[in-house]
Amino acid sequence: MSSLFGILYTFPLNLYISYEKWPVYLTAVLYAALLFLRLKKKHTVNTILLAGIPVLILLLYWRELPDQWAVLSDSLSLSGSGSGGDLTAGMMLFAVGCAILLQVLIFKVGAGWVLYFYSIPVILLGPLIGRNPDFIGICLFALYHIGTSLSGNMMSGRKQTYPAFYKKSHMNVAGRGMYFLAAVFFVFLGISVLLTSRHMEQLFEIPVAIEQRIRQTTMEIFHTEPDKGRVSRGNNYPSGQQQLEIIVDEKPQDPIYLRNYIGGTYENSRWEEADDSGFYDRSIRGGSRDRWEYIGRYAFENRQFSLLQYMGDGDLMPFRIEIRRLSNGLSGYYTPYLSRYLNMTEEGYVFSAYTQEQFESIFENTPQEELQWYENRESLYGQFVREQYLDVDRESLPRLTSLCAENPQQGIDHITSYIVNTLHSMASYTLNPGVIPLGEEIPEYFLFESHRGYCQHFATTAALMFRLYGVPSRYVTGYMAQPDDFEQQSDGAWRAVLEDGDAHAWTEVYADGQGWKVVDATPSAGDESQTSQASTEESSTQAENTAQEDVQEETDTAQESEHAGIDWLGIIRRVLWVLMILLAVGAAVFLIHFRRKRKLEEIRKLPADELFVVVVKRFCNTCG
């Protein structure tokens, strides 16, 4: 019985399918009990019931079984949505099949050890599909393997001269031995939990630190980095190794974002690197016919810095920022926003940069006609951006698409506030969110299932939500330095040392007429003050209205179905379930009666003197 429950409880597809638990477990208990009774003594009624239960399930659910098979096939497919109808009937048949298989393996073949090929992979590989083995599952497997090990050893008695001895004495010894070993197992399990519970974090940190150190050393030796566009499905374990050193003239008032990788197209849990070369190629080919003119790449990428330098008239002064690499594992440049490259130094490279506040002040305080040249040039790039950075696979993200469609927003500021507020309210920040199962879309599982993640998950989901609202967006990775990370040096400069834990991911959104702007949706890193109270109340009101509409639709559907007629098939099913429950209770009573009757028969066969000794011993045990 424990083996059957262990298989049903730890079944890997439980993550991807839905079914009612109590009918499945009731079927498993009833069928396993009938098989055990048949093992003791064959009865015609017992055989009829064993054959009748699966036939009854087929007759009751024959219309639903093809649809359930289609749902199961979709769940097994990596491209499937992972959600579908109820699979109760299919799981009931699965429970019957498992009961028969286990009966044959344990009592007919004597090969209960075969289940090791199921239990060990489930325990070891479960985390890869998001099915972490828990205490109940491990205990069920432990009880099963203890019992089958003992009964398997007893199987050798079947080939001896006294098969009756196997049936009575051997199996009694196996049963008592199983109870004893199970008790010993739980005692030692409790002791181990008590001894290690206070130190489990330290124990888990040992293999993690070793793995992290090996990975870091390998990256330094071969001068490689992890796939920057790959969105992680697992936990994040920073090693604390220093990566970058930043030196500025004055202590910054806002976080400094250093972008290294920009993702443009999201597919198969990875962001392909953004490529703007088509924009510059088009400007060369187009000429003046369609308002396109030759645009130099270097000049255009520094257009925001040039605007500030030109319009500032010396009133807006940039700050100097020097970036030095402290690890050989880093590749590419780490570029601050609103900056221009100046020169190389022995340790790194230097930029001249402005702040986002200075950039916004130019647009607020400068007459529109003086910015016309910049906006005209930016509008050409805006056309390319809308063609390039709005793609999103809606079919693979049905829940995220529905969420955005059910909560329409207008204007980039309102859209930004809603997305940030939604992510903060529906998910929490942690470096240890667990493993996202294979076949699950990371943004959907993160936002609607686990509700836990770190910067890669927040940034990816935010970028896709912006695109669903028609706002061009990109996924960016690099490093972020908080103002508190900087310490003043003896020469007056401010220095910050960034570790691998400061690696970060965020979202860029395109603002018409201005260019790319940072939106950091990660709760622990972003500026949460940008989520206004008005946006929060608006989002809450929309969610309440949506919920009320859903409840009203369900009520209307229920009323329609209530007036449509009597569901005779449903009534028959309920009656049959009641009969199966009564049958299970009757089987339990019969087992108790059968055991009592067998004991009485054994007592009647005892000689008078032995019977007297047995009675005296039981009387003494009862009296204490």
Descriptors for this entry?
624 residues; alpha+beta; 6-stranded antiparallel β-sheet; 14 strands
Overview of the molecule:
It is a single chain. The chain is an alpha+beta fold and 624 residues long. It is 56% helix and 13% strand. It contains 21 helices and 14 strands. The strands form three sheets. A six-stranded antiparallel beta sheet has the order 6-7-4-1-12-11, with no helix packed on it. Strands 2, 3, 5, 10, 13 and 14 form a six-stranded antiparallel beta sheet that branches. Strands 8-9 form a two-stranded parallel ribbon. A hairpin with a 2-residue loop joins β2 and β3. It is elongated and about 115 Å long. The relative contact order is 0.09. About 11% of the residues have low confidence.
Strand content: 5-15%
Q: List low-confidence stretches.
A: 78-83, 154-166, 287-292, 525-565
Overall mean confidence score, pLDDT = 75
Q: How can the largest sheet be summarized?
A: 6 strands, antiparallel
What is the alpha-carbon Rg in Å? 34 Å
Structural class label: alpha+beta
Shape: elongated
Question: What is the rounded distance between the termini?
Answer: 33 Å
Q: What spatial order of strands do you see in the largest sheet? A: 6-7-4-1-12-11
Short summary:
By secondary structure, this protein is of the alpha+beta class. Helices cover 56% and strands 13% of the residues. A hairpin with a 5-residue loop joins β11 and β12.
How would the blueprint of this fold be written?
Elements: H1 2-9, H2 21-40, H3 44-61, H4 64-76, H5 88-109, H6 116-125, H7 135-154, H8 163-196, H9 200-222, E1 242-248, E2 256-267, E3 270-273, H10 277-286, H11 297-301, H12 303-311, E4 319-325, E5 335-336, E6 339-344, E7 348-353, H13 356-365, H14 372-388, H15 398-406, H16 412-426, E8 428-429, H17 442-450, E9 452-453, H18 455-468, E10 473-481, E11 487-488, E12 494-499, E13 503-511, E14 515-519, H19 533-564, H20 568-604, H21 608-623
Parallel strand pairs: 8-9
Antiparallel strand pairs: 1-4, 1-12, 2-3, 2-5, 2-10, 4-7, 6-7, 10-13, 11-12, 13-14
